[in-house]
Write a structure and sequence with these properties.
heterodimer; A: alpha+beta; three-stranded antiparallel sheet; rod-shaped; B: alpha+beta; four-stranded antiparallel sheet; 4 helices
């Protein structure tokens, strides 16, 4: 700064420091709005109710202690209704699941193209 | 020889201009505009609310009894469904109720019609009009009921799907 009065350099420097920190804080604030929305959307988009519904009704149909003919009726209802109203393919072992070592195992596979969910459900 | 006594002012001017321009850009950029594509967020929240209400209604009070929803479907009890469901979805913190409306149908497999899907109206508190924008929520039930309603003996167990169209007006 040739020939310039340079007594106020500290003030100018501090001015810059403060402006830049404010600027970066604003940038973080700007991002946080988007982050919150994206997260909330991802949580809502998770097909919790589809998984829960198909899981509960299949397990209930297996464990309700129905005669084989009745269970077959109920499980055919589930299969046909899933196909036409829920766009889901349900495949159930008719008339009842096999017991291995004293436990009944039910494999549940769910896949809607975005979310995959797999479970082996076990009951004594 | 060019006079260089204004250099610092020039640099400061340029920096200040840059900071102001970028700040203005940030502020303008931070504003989100609500477009028709964003309505799916509200729809998803409505779906969560409706599904949870149906799930609560399909929870038995103990391990051996039927859930309220099963009883409602078996007895075709439209008024209990209406009261319970509207209570669940319309109650809010503080005074004043929310303004949600619904139509509820039961979808079932008609064995005597080649496994086609039929449905009948369980309950509704308003007819849907063209301007309404509903979401669909469902709940599986296993009920001891003749489907389609008719005289069979003994009454068989059947699986059916409670389908509710839910909208806010």
């Amino acid at each position: 700064m040739a020939g310039l009065n340079d007594e106020a350099q500290w003030i100018v420097l501090m001015g810059f420091v403060v402006s830049f920190s404010l600027f970066f804080l604003a940038m973080i604030l700007n991002q946080s709005v988007v982050v919150g929305q994206t997260t909330a959307e991802a949580v809502s988009e998770f097909p919790k109710d589809d998984i829960r519904g198909i899981r509960e009704v299949t397990i209930e149909s297996q464990m309700m202690n129905l005669p084989d003919a009745d269970r077959k009726l109920v499980q055919n209802d589930i299969r046909v209704l899933s196909m036409s109203r829920q766009n889901a393919i349900v495949n159930l072992p008719l008339p009842s699941p096999t017991m291995i070592g004293g436990y009944t195992y039910i494999d549940i596979h769910y896949n809607n193209g975005v979310t995959a969910y797999n479970e082996t459900w076990r009951s004594p | 020889m060019v006079d260089t006594s204004g250099q610092l002012y020039t640099i400061e001017g340029i920096s200040a201009a840059l900071i102001m321009l970028i700040s203005a850009y940030l502020v303008v950029n931070a504003t989100s505009i609500y477009t028709p594509g964003d309505t799916h967020i509200n729809d998803m929240q409505l779906e969560v609310l409706g599904s949870d209400a149906l799930q609560v209604m399909n929870t038995p009070v103990n391990g051996s009894s039927e859930s309220p929803l099963q009883k409602i479907v078996e007895n075709d009890d439209a008024s209990t469904f209406n009261t319970t469901f509207l209570n669940f979805v319309n109650n809010r913190t503080g005074s004043g109720m929310d303004n949600l409306h619904y139509t509820a149908d039961i979808a079932y497999r008609n064995i005597s019609d080649g496994d086609t899907i039929w449905s009948y109206r369980l309950a509704s508190n308003r007819n849907m009009t063209a301007g309404d924008h509903p979401v669909r929520v469902t709940e599986w039930i296993i009920v001891k009921k003749n489907l389609p309603p008719g005289p069979y003996s003994p009454t068989p167990y059947r699986a059916a799907l409670v389908e509710v169209l839910l909208w806010r007006d």
